[in-house]
Amino acid sequence: MSESLDIKALVFDVFGTVVDWRSSVAREAEAFLSLRGHKLDWFAFADRWREGYQPAMAPVREGKRPWVSFEVLHEEILVEMLAELGVEAITAADLKELNQAWRRLDLWPDVPGGLSRLRQVGPVVALSNGGIAQMIALARWGGFQWDTILGAQVSKTYKPDSKIYLDGAAYLDLRPDQVMMVAAHPWDLEAAKACGLRTAYVHRPTEYGTEKPKKRPDKGTFDIEVDSFEELADRLGA
Amino acid sequence: MSESLDIKALVFDVFGTVVDWRSSVAREAEAFLSLRGHKLDWFAFADRWREGYQPAMAPVREGKRPWVSFEVLHEEILVEMLAELGVEAITAADLKELNQAWRRLDLWPDVPGGLSRLRQVGPVVALSNGGIAQMIALARWGGFQWDTILGAQVSKTYKPDSKIYLDGAAYLDLRPDQVMMVAAHPWDLEAAKACGLRTAYVHRPTEYGTEKPKKRPDKGTFDIEVDSFEELADRLGA
Question: Do B147 and A136 count as a contact with CB atoms less than 8 A apart?
Answer without folding.
Answer: yes
